[in-house]
C-alpha cells in the first residue's frame, strides 16, 4: 500500500500541473504554457547567470583564485537560503494551516503527519524552483572555472535540491510561532507586514553597507564565508559538498532532512491547535446599530478592495514591498545621512554621470513603482467570492477602476515622498521634479492596467490557498515580466538618446509614450477585459 | 418577473441546460427541483448573470440580463447555495458594501438592516469579521444583505441548507411577505416537502431539460411531490 503522504503529494502535483495547463487535451495550449514557463525560468535564471559570471570573473584574476572560487557558490547559497527563509515566514501559515482543502483532508483517514508533510512539500517545491533558478547557473559557471571533480558536481546538484529544506523549515517554525502568538491580536496582518518590512530593511542594510558590493564580495569572499558559516551552519556543509567531500554531502542531507521530519512530527501533534489559531478571529458580540453612511459604487468597491488587500500580509509583501523599502530607505538615508542616497551621492561625485543621474533616478522609481502594482492577482483573489461582483448591479469599469485605485492609492503617496526627498537632496528643478512624479505615476497606472489585463487573460479562481495566486500563478509571473518591460520601454530609449537629445525632450517623449500606452491599454481593458470578465467562472 | 426563453448553456460539448423556458410571475413562489447535476445551479447562475449562456433570452421584469445587466440586476437579490463572503470584512461593512452597490439611501438601509438583522438575530455580531462566522451565520448575513436593498425578486440556490429551524421559518415568512407585496421568489431545493408546502408553482428539471412545470396542485395532483419527482426522473 502506498504511503498516504506520497499519494497526497502526487495528487497535489497532478492538480498543480493540470491547473498550470501542463497536462490536458489541448496540446497547443499545453505547449504554449510549457514554453512560457521555460522562457520565464530562462529569463530569471539569466540574472543569476550574469551575477555569478561577474563574481567568478573578478575572483579569477586574484592570486589565490582556486581557493576562493568555492566561496562564491556559498554566498549565492546563503542569499538563496535567506530569501527562502524570509518568504516562507509569511507564506507557510497559509499553506500549512489555512489551506481550503485542509478540513476535507483532516476528515479522511490520513495521519496529521501525512497531511502536514504534503503541505510542507508544497512549500518546498515552491522554494525549490527559486533555488534551481539561482543555483543552477552558478553551478554551471563554477565548474567552468573550478577544476572538475565528479563528486563535487554530484555534491552541488544534491545541495541544490537539499538547500530549500532548512530555510523552509525555519520559516515555517517562525510562521507557526507567529500564528500562535498573534492569534488574539486583531491587527496581526499589520504586525506581520511591519515585521517583514523590518526584516527586509535589515537585510538590505546589510548589503547596502557593503560599498562597491561586487568588489567587496570578491575581495572578501573568505571573510564573508566565515560569517555566513557562523550565522547559518549548513553553509559549511554546502562548501564541503561542492568541494568534493562525500561525507559532508551525506552529513548535509542528514542535517537537512532529519530536523524536517522531527519538526513535522511535532507540528502534526499540535496541528489542530495551529489550524484553530490560524483561523481564529477577533469576535465581538456587542455591536449596536448606528447611523450608516453611504458611498458611491466606485468608492464602496475601492474600500472593499483595500480591505481585501490589507487583510493579506502575503499580498502586501509581494507587491508594495519594493516601493515601501525604497521609501523607508530614502527616509532613513535623510535621517541617518548614510544609506543608499549617500552611496548615490558618492557615485555621482566619483564618476561623471551627473548628466544622466536624473534618468537613473526616474528609472529606479519607475521600475519600483511598476513592480508594486497590485492588480495582477486582484481578479484571481476573488476566487469563489466572484459571484458577489458578478450578480451585483455594478459596471465592470467600476470594478476594474476600484482594483486599479488600490495600486494608485498605495503607490502615489510613496512615489511623491521619494520624489520630494530626491528633489530636496539633489536640488532638482521644479520641471524635473514634475517629470519625476509624472513618469513613475503614469507607469504605475499603465502597469496596473496591464496587470489587470494579464490576470483576466490568465485567471486562477479555484485556488486553495492564496500563495497559489500571489506567488505561483501564471498571471503573477507574466505580469512581472510585463512590468519590467514597461519600465524598460521607457528607460532604454532615454539612456540611448541622452547624449544626442536634450533631457527635457527625452522625458517629454517618455511621458507621451506612457500616455499613448495608457490610452491603448485602457481601451483593451474596457473591451477585451470586460468580455473576459463576463465569461469568467469559478473553474477558471 | 422572470421570463426565460429557450435557455441553452453548454460546458464544452456537454449541454447543461437544454432549451429551457420558464415564466415566473409577480406573486409566485417558484420551486425549482431536480437531481444533482440536473442543471438547477447553472440555470440560476445564468439568470443572475454570474455565468454567460449560449442561446436564449432571460428577461427580468422585461429587462434583458445580457443587454442591460445593471438595470436587471438592480431588481433582484441572489444568494448562492454556499455563499462565500469577504472574510476580512465585518458583517456590517459587507451589508453596507452591498447597499452602496445597490445605491440604497442611509435611512432606508438602516431600517432594513435593523429589521432583518433583528429577525435573524444577527445584530449583535455585525461588528465581527465574517471570518469568525459559522456557515449558518454567513448564510444569514447573505440573506440580510440581499434583503437590505429591498429587491422585487429573490433568486435563491438551496436557501434552507445550513439554516437553523427558526431562521428557515423566518425566511419562509419573508418569502410570503415579498410575494404579497407583488414580488416573486425563485429558488432551487432538494427538500421536496418544503417545495410542496411553500411553492405555488414548481418546475422539475432532468438532465438540463424541463420535464414538468405549472401550479403545484396541478403538477402533484393526488400524489405527493416526492412520488411525482421520483417517477419523472426514473423515466
Which sheet architecture does the biggest sheet of chain B show? Answer: 6 strands, mixed
Strand content of chain A: under 5%
User: Which structural class fits the helix and strand makeup of chain A?
Assistant: mainly alpha
Mean pLDDT of chain A: 82
Shape, per Cα inertia axes of chain A: globular
Order of helices and strands of chain B: EEEHEEHEHHHEHEHEEHH
The number of helical segments of chain A is 25
Please give the radius of gyration of chain A in angstroms.
25 Å
- Overall mean pLDDT score of chain B? 92
Helix tally of chain B equals 9
How are helices and strands ordered from N to C of chain A?
Answer: HHHHHHHHHHHHHHHHHHHHHHHHH
Counted beta strands of chain B: 10
Helical proportion of chain B? 25-40%
**What proportion strand of chain B?**
25-35%
Radius of gyration of chain B: 18 Å
Shape of chain B: globular
Largest interface: A-B, 42 and 49 residues
Explained architecture:
The complex is a heterodimer of chains A (540) and B (235). Chain A has 540 residues and is an all-alpha fold. Chain A has 25 helices and no strands. The radius of gyration of chain A is 25 Å and the shape is globular. Chain B is of the alpha/beta class. In chain B, a hairpin with a 2-residue loop joins strand 9 and strand 10. The two termini of chain B are 31 Å apart. In chain B, helix 3 runs parallel beside helix 5 and helix 4 (106-119) packs antiparallel against helix 5. Chains A and B meet through helix 15 and helix 20 of A and helix 2, helix 3 and helix 4 of B.
Amino acid at each position: 500500500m502506498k504511503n498516504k503522504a506520497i499519494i497526497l503529494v502526487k495528487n497535489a502535483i497532478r492538480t498543480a500541473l493540470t491547473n498550470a495547463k501542463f497536462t490536458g487535451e489541448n496540446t497547443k495550449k499545453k505547449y504554449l504554457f510549457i514554453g512560457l514557463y521555460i522562457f520565464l525560468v530562462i529569463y530569471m535564471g539569466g540574472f543569476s547567470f550574469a551575477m555569478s559570471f561577474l563574481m567568478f570573473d573578478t575572483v579569477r584574476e586574484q592570486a589565490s583564485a582556486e581557493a576562493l572560487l568555492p566561496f562564491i557558490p556559498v554566498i549565492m547559497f546563503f542569499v538563496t537560503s535567506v530569501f527562502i527563509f524570509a518568504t516562507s515566514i509569511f507564506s507557510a501559515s497559509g499553506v500549512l494551516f489555512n489551506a481550503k482543502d485542509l478540513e476535507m483532508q483532516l476528515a479522511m483517514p490520513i495521519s496529521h503527519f501525512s497531511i502536514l508533510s504534503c503541505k510542507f512539500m508544497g512549500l518546498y517545491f515552491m522554494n525549490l524552483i527559486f533555488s534551481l533558478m539561482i543555483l543552477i547557473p552558478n553551478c554551471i559557471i563554477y565548474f567552468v572555472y573550478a577544476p572538475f571533480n565528479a563528486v563535487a558536481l554530484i555534491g552541488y546538484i544534491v545541495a541544490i535540491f537539499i538547500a530549500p529544506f532548512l530555510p523552509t523549515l525555519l520559516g515555517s517554525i517562525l510562521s507557526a510561532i507567529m500564528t500562535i502568538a498573534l492569534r488574539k491580536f486583531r491587527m496581526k496582518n499589520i504586525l506581520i507586514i511591519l515585521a517583514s518590512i523590518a526584516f527586509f530593511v535589515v537585510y538590505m542594510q546589510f548589503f547596502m553597507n557593503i560599498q562597491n558590493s561586487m568588489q567587496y564580495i570578491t575581495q572578501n569572499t573568505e571573510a564573508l564565508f566565515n560569517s555566513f558559516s557562523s550565522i547559518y551552519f549548513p553553509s559549511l556543509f554546502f562548501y564541503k559538498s561542492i568541494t568534493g567531500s562525500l561525507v559532508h554531502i551525506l552529513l548535509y542531507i542528514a542535517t537537512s532532512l532529519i530536523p524536517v521530519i522531527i519538526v513535522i512530527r511535532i507540528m502534526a501533534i499540535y496541528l489542530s491547535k495551529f489550524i484553530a489559531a490560524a483561523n481564529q478571529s477577533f469576535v465581538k458580540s456587542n455591536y449596536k446599530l448606528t447611523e450608516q453612511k453611504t458611498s458611491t459604487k466606485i468608492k464602496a468597491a475601492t474600500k472593499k478592495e483595500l480591505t481585501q488587500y490589507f487583510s493579506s500580509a502575503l499580498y502586501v509583501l509581494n507587491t508594495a514591498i519594493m516601493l515601501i523599502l525604497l521609501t523607508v530607505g530614502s527616509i532613513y538615508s535623510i535621517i541617518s545621512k548614510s544609506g543608499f542616497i549617500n552611496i548615490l551621492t558618492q557615485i555621482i561625485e566619483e564618476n561623471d554621470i551627473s548628466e544622466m543621474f536624473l534618468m537613473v533616478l526616474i528609472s529606479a522609481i519607475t521600475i519600483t513603482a511598476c513592480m508594486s502594482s497590485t492588480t495582477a492577482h486582484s481578479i484571481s483573489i476573488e476566487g469563489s467570492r466572484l459571484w458577489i461582483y458578478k450578480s451585483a448591479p455594478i459596471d465592470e469599469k467600476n470594478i476594474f477602476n476600484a482594483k486599479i485605485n488600490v495600486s494608485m492609492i498605495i503607490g502615489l503617496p510613496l512615489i511623491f515622498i521619494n520624489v520630494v526627498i530626491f528633489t530636496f537632496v539633489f536640488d532638482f528643478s521644479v520641471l524635473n521634479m514634475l517629470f519625476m512624479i509624472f513618469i513613475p505615476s503614469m507607469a504605475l497606472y499603465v502597469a496596473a492596467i496591464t496587470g489587470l489585463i494579464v490576470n483576466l487573460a490568465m485567471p486562477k479562481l479555484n485556488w486553495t490557498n492564496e500563495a497559489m495566486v500571489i506567488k505561483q500563478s501564471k498571471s503573477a509571473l507574466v505580469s512581472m515580466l510585463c512590468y519590467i518591460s514597461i519600465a524598460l520601454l521607457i528607460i532604454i530609449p532615454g539612456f540611448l538618446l541622452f547624449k544626442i537629445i536634450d533631457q527635457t525632450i527625452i522625458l517629454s517623449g517618455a511621458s507621451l509614450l506612457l500616455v499613448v500606452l495608457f490610452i491603448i491599454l485602457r481601451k483593451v481593458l474596457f473591451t477585451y477585459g470586460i468580455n473576459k470578465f463576463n465569461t469568467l467562472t469559478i473553474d477558471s | 418577473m422572470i421570463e426565460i426563453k429557450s435557455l441553452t448553456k453548454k460546458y464544452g460539448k456537454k449541454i447543461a441546460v437544454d432549451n429551457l423556458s420558464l415564466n415566473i410571475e409577480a406573486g409566485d413562489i417558484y420551486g425549482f427541483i431536480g437531481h444533482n447535476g440536473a442543471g438547477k445551479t447553472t440555470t440560476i447562475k445564468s439568470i443572475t448573470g454570474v455565468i454567460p449562456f449560449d442561446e436564449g433570452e432571460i428577461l427580468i421584469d422585461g429587462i434583458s440580463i445580457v443587454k442591460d445587466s445593471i438595470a436587471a440586476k438592480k431588481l433582484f437579490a441572489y444568494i448562492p447555495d454556499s455563499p462565500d463572503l469577504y472574510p476580512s470584512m465585518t458583517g456590517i461593512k459587507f451589508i453596507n458594501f452591498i447597499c452602496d452597490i445597490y445605491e440604497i439611501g442611509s435611512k432606508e438601509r438602516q431600517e432594513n438592516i435593523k429589521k432583518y438583522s433583528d429577525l435573524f438575530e444577527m445584530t449583535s455580531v455585525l461588528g465581527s469579521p465574517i471570518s469568525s462566522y459559522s456557515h449558518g451565520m454567513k448564510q444569514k448575513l447573505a440573506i440580510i444583505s440581499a434583503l437590505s436593498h429591498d429587491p422585487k425578486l429573490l433568486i435563491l440556490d438551496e436557501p434552507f441548507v445550513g439554516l437553523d429551524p427558526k431562521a428557515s421559518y423566518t425566511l419562509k415568512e419573508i418569502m410570503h411577505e415579498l410575494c404579497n407585496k407583488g414580488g416573486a421568489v425563485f429558488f432551487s431545493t432538494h427538500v421536496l416537502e418544503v417545495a410542496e408546502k411553500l411553492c405555488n408553482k414548481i418546475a422539475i428539471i432532468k438532465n438540463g431539460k424541463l420535464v414538468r412545470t405549472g401550479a403545484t396542485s396541478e403538477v402533484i395532483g393526488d400524489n405527493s411531490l416526492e412520488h411525482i419527482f421520483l417517477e419523472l426522473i426514473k423515466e
